[in-house]
Amino acid sequence: MLLSTSTRINHLSRIRLPSSIIATISTTSSYRSLSTNNPTTTSANTMLTPPPTPKQPRSNLPGSNNTKPGRTLTLDTIHKSILNVEYAVRGELAIKADKYTQMLKSQQGEQGEQGGKDSGLGGMESRNGEKGEGKEKDGKDHGDLGERLPFDKVVTANIGNPQQRGLDQKPITFWRQVISLLEYPDLLSHPLTPQIYPVDTIERAKKLYAEIGSVGAYTHSKGVKEIRERVAKFIERRDGFPSDPEHIFLTAGASAGVSQWLNVALSPGDGVLVPIPQYPLYTATLAALSCHPVPYQLQESSGWSLSQPVLQAAIDSVDRDKTPIKALVVINPGNPTGGCLEEKDMREIVRMCHDQGLVLMADEVYQTNIYYPETKPFVSFKKVLRTMEREQDGENPITPGVIELISFHSLSKGVSGECGRRGGYFELVNIDEQVVDQIYKMASISLCPPVTGQVGVDLLVDPPKPGEPSYAQFEKETNVTHQSLLDRSAYMSEKFNALPGMSCQKAEGAMYLFPSIEMPDKALKEAEKRGKPADVMYALDLLDATGICAVAGSGFGQKEGTYHLRVTALCPGVEEYVGKIEEFHKDFMKRYA
To answer: pTM of the prediction?
Structure first.
């Protein structure tokens, strides 16, 4: 369905913003004046299933005639959409791995603290391991705290959390020095400080302290103005096009930004095109909003590429009168695939958003994790969009100012790995100013993003420069981290491709590999007997046998009839780690041959 230019101008100003958002808080003009001062994880064929009809309240709720005591909050009375939300990377496998971590701590007695460090799961919330509960009915679950496990540590290959205990990626020294001075600003004037901290670290901390004050105080709801200005300069250096700091929002990580944006942009029943496989943040958030993921399949055989005909087929599969498709999500570099888009494919995506009236959501949090920049460099969607807007002499040019883009970045990935600091940003391009006001209004409800996370964003976009005292160490640390990720990723894909019944596309970026498993018929029947997807059974059995916690491909979505496993390239001791997977996989294939 080709939309005319006249019907596309100010697309987001005319879309059905939820009335609750428009009515919330106060008039938006005051916010603009202040701003210058201070999924369910489902299979593709079920993604369009409407949310369930809410049940009637229980009779013992307030206002009913039945005064019998009882709990107000039950699964029958909480918001129905929440029951549809699933998040695979923190799901069943992670909970079970947590339990095994507690078992190892118990068995190690006085050395429990060291055991927790080695286990690699110390940074995850323990849900049921404290009591040794949660024993599974199927597989080789080890449910008794007194039982000896067949492994001495749990390896967390399920989530991109580089500084987690057991993964232990070294924090960037410059970051920690600056933030430590801001956490205890008395050090800025202490006579011994110049003997401990490089002079550029002290100068940066003083500059930030003058701009922010105490990191324990609220900031502007968009984030500190001076930091947003430096983010804008970073984007301008990267893309060669201007960036407006008033259209940049600092966030508590990219995930919070995605949720914040979708809550403003979507109404119940709207559809959003999401890649399959995809990071489950998107389907989970859409499920919570009673909206519909519209899946489009990435092409595994060509390095997880994005095909315009596949996108068009996904759009054509939906009755847009019943399910208005409002946005298109692209993750580049890809999670969980590790694929990087070519610029020609990105141009096709921009063209499709122009012709179909779609908001383009560009998840670009892995833009620093590029393994082969000579052949597959990172190019931002903003650069592609602005370049195409400028090309008005060619055939069928796009209309400038029409395509709405929101792009996300984070300090959790890249070579920083500061996941727990919760910092990120999104930039709005070609978004109607009245909608920007509504986004700001909703951001103000949370008051402000974490302040040390905002500081982290500042250090991300404005690191030490050549010639400055901290530059040499910064360059060395970041190069070591980047090279380690590349080396592990290449080693893992080579080993996986050598295994019978397993194939793996070489990762071109991000932090993950997504190998495909050819499930034997006997394994499929056993999985059906256990009541689990076959790749979930595989991942659970892998955890039981080796202590390696990975995520089944079904948690990200995958082409029907295929099975995958997502593993990170973050684990040290990769030879031992992959060796255990190799041994387990060969035994699995032999057992179910």
So the answer is: 0.79
